[in-house]
Amino acid sequence: SNREAELMDPHARLLLETVWQAVENAGAHPSELAATATGVFLSFYNNEYSHLLEDVALEKSSEPYLGTALSGTVKANRISFLLGLTGPSQVYDTACSSALVALHRAMQSITAGDCDQAIVAGVSLLLSPAPVVALSKMGILNESSV
Questions:
Q1: 16, 37, 50, 139: which one has the fewest Cβ atoms less than 10 Å from its Cβ?
Q2: What DSSP string describes 46-72?
């Protein structure tokens, strides 16, 4: 819906667009994946968007969409729903190793027969300087990356 699209996390929008393009670049039309045992394994650990929405005044009719706008798990499920996939749909949050874990779990799932093929994706946008500033103050970042 329009209201849901207005609140959609930029991570989710980027994922939907990029996965669609990746399927096309692989030589398939996204509709060809419908009803296939294709799994979605997603790396997502940046919940910064929820903090950005805290101070935004929302119309009452938009409030119900906050659940889908802010949920990490919904990001993988949106992809599965959009493409009509029937395989596992999972999100991993292991900080910097999330994408590697998602790839590993996809390979395990294919090997175990839980799915025939998999879409593996990772997304992490910096929507404000706050997380980097906090990490810098903790002394965690390398001087050349600040």
A1: 139
A2: --HHHHHHTT----GGGGGGHHHHH-H
pLDDT at 145 over 70: no
Q: For residue 122, what are the β-bridge partners?
A: 43
Contacts of 51 (CB under 8 A, 6+ apart): 128, 130
Predicted local distance difference test score (pLDDT) of residue 116 = 98
Closest Cα to residue 47, out of 79, 64, 71?
71
**pLDDT tens-digit map of 57-97:** 777 777 777 777 778 888 999 999 999 999 999 999 998 89
Please give the angle made by the CA atoms of 132, 138 and 144, to the nearest 5 degrees. 55
β strands within the chain, DSSP E: 38-44, 89-92, 117-123
How is residue 125 written in tokens?
A: 């946008």
Whether 100 and 42 have beta carbons less than 8 Å apart is answered as no
Rounded CA-CA distance 114/110 in Å is 6
